[in-house]
Design brief:
The protein has helices at 2-22, 41-85, and strands spanning 26-30, 36-40. It is mostly helical. The radius of gyration is 42 Å and the shape is rod-shaped.
């Protein structure tokens, strides 16, 4: 996949170079006060492309930044609320079982030497 990406960018650079060499002409631009600017066509196209791209990219990155901040805030709030709403775990300890009761008529062991 990386090879295809490199191939695409190389082909795009080649097409841009061929376009630039084929259209290297000066274009007169009329400015205010009777001024005329002579600009090469490829440079003019690059500037107009960047004039459209840069504001759009700034807007896109600003929107992404704001959405990431909103998501992080929502996740923090959700984590905090889960901690508050979850009751603390109570430890249930079962009492030790009592030794079995000795029946009243059962024989008991008498230690030796005892009465």
């Amino acid at each position: 996949m990386q090879f295809l990406k490199i191939l695409f960018w190389c082909l795009l650079a080649f097409v841009a170079a061929v376009f630039t060499l084929g259209n290297w002409t000066t274009v007169p631009i009329k400015l205010w006060g009777g001024l005329v600017a002579e600009v090469n066509l490829p440079l003019l196209l690059l500037v107009t492309f960047l004039l459209g791209l840069v504001p759009t990219m700034l807007y896109y990155h600003t929107v992404r930044w704001r959405l990431r901040n909103r998501l992080a805030t929502s996740e923090r709030t959700l984590t905090d609320l889960r901690g508050i709403l979850t009751p603390p775990a109570t430890l249930v300890v079962e009492p030790d079982p009592l030794p079995p009761a000795i029946p009243a008529g059962a024989p008991t062991a008498v230690p030796p030497g005892g009465a």
